[in-house]
Design brief:
- The protein is built from 10 helices and 8 strands.
- The protein is α/β, with parallel strands linked by helices.
- The protein has a 4-stranded parallel β-sheet with strand order 3-2-1-8, with helices on both faces. It has a two-stranded parallel sheet with strand order 4-5. A two-stranded parallel ribbon has the order 6-7.
């Protein structure tokens, strides 16, 4: 799972209200070179979107985001989610994910939260909201004492700063909604989603190729 996340490099954070657009959105992302998606529980019926995408494209790395409870984690797991993302560190959600063989990605922005994650055996955490908590500078500072830890920054990621984040060895992948903004989805602007995804993929491949 960690290798898949590393390979993906970019994790679209998707809030999708219309289930009938799930397959078309996945197609648009895949056409742009992105084969990963985080479906957030900020929209009702997120588990249905997860199930629809995983059934249509079994090779996609599809996970659940904004998971705030074990109940939501259960829905995500039953729908076929492969990873569970939370905005903060919730021990019960982390334990549930580990028990089910899923990858937990809890939000950790302080040394104390990171140490709690490490005690659970985690080697990857989400860093959210990235820009508000100091961005890549803070992540690099935290990686000094926690040298074996990898981060998935989310929040404020865009085409303008994606390269800066991915260049850091401590960053395994970046989460972002810049290629799947609600307006793009609501207006069925699939080609635009594909084009933005292509640009993001090109950045990720170039940076990873240079390392």
């Amino acid at each position: 799972m960690k290798e898949e996340l590393q390979k993906a490099g970019i994790v679209p954070v998707i809030k999708l209200k219309e289930l009938d657009k799930a397959v078309r959105l996945a197609e648009a992302l895949r056409a742009g070179g992105i084969h990963c998606a985080e479906i957030t529980f900020r929209a009702e019926g997120a588990e249905k979107v997860i199930r629809t995408m995983t059934e249509a494209f079994p090779d996609m790395l599809v996970g659940a985001g904004t998971v705030l409870s074990v109940e939501e984690a259960e829905k995500a797991a039953e729908a076929g989610a492969k990873f569970i993302v939370s905005p903060g560190f919730d021990e019960e959600v982390v334990d549930f994910a580990l028990e089910k063989g899923l990858l937990p990605l809890p939000g950790c922005v302080t040394p104390t939260e990171i140490q709690r994650a490490r005690k659970k055996g985690l080697s990857i955490v989400k860093f959210f909201p990235a820009s508000q908590f100091g961005g890549i500078k803070t992540i690099k500072a935290l990686s000094a004492p926690f040298s074996t830890l990898r981060f998935m920054p989310t929040g404020g990621i865009s085409l303008d700063n994606l390269e800066e984040y991915l260049q850091a060895d401590c960053v395994i992948a970046c989460g972002g909604s810049f290629m799947v903004k609600e307006q793009l989805i609501s207006e069925n602007r699939w080609e635009e989603i594909t084009e933005i995804s292509k640009k993001a993929t090109e950045i990720a491949e170039r940076v990873r190729g240079e390392k």
